[in-house]
Amino acid sequence: MILNDASTIWLFDYDLTLYFESERAVLNSLDRRISLYVQKILGCDFEKAQEIRKEYLRDYGTTLAGLRAKFGVSPDDFFDFIHEPEFLIYPEPAPQKREFLMRLKGPRYIFTNGRSDWSRTGCKRMGIYDCFRRIVGLEDLNWEGKPQISAYEKMESVLIEDGVTEKIFPEKIILLDDSLKNLKPAAERGWRTIWVNSSLEPKPNFVHEKVENLIKLGIRNEEC
Ligand SMILES: [Mg+2]
């Protein structure tokens, strides 16, 4: 159970956190565009592009980081191509998510490794865009996302700039993310971490809670 008070700051990853594993087709549609972009830059076939992406993920953390290191690709060129709306699938309207988010008393942010237009469009489709104070996207993180330490530092500086807190009390920050890799540095900073994952895999020690999906998260109001 998480205490639902006004001083709790809620940070949500977007992909596979604000929309669920059951809507993986959303992520798959984006993933296909990323492979097509790699294919375009390298002038190779689709299968080869997918192999190269695996190498980049291993060596650089993300496909974009690999493309930047190897070819000096501009992040905006990459995102303009992969976010072309006519090729993408978006999450369905989600009134239950809206109801859940609106019950949270503290400020809510999206903290995502995508350029913010992707989650903005998706959240508008789900009907939850206005539930968030701001989207902190990869463009706000100097194109260096989670799990790089600089991303978490930047997120904390946004909270100060926005005036949601005067100084950082890490135990007041909650990050919900489907990726353990992204939760670990957050836990190391003293943030609370919630792993959104529908498998039966047990949670590792650095994760405070595990939920099948975010609307299943147990929250308790101060007065109760
Ligand atoms: Mg994610």
From TrEMBL:
InterPro entries: HAD-like_sf (IPR036412), HAD_sf (IPR023214), Pyr-5-nucltdase (IPR010237)
Keyword Lipid biosynthesis (UniProt): no
GO molecular function per UniProt: hydrolase activity
Keyword hit for Hydrolase: yes
Keywords from the named record: Hydrolase
Protein name: Hydrolase of the HAD superfamily
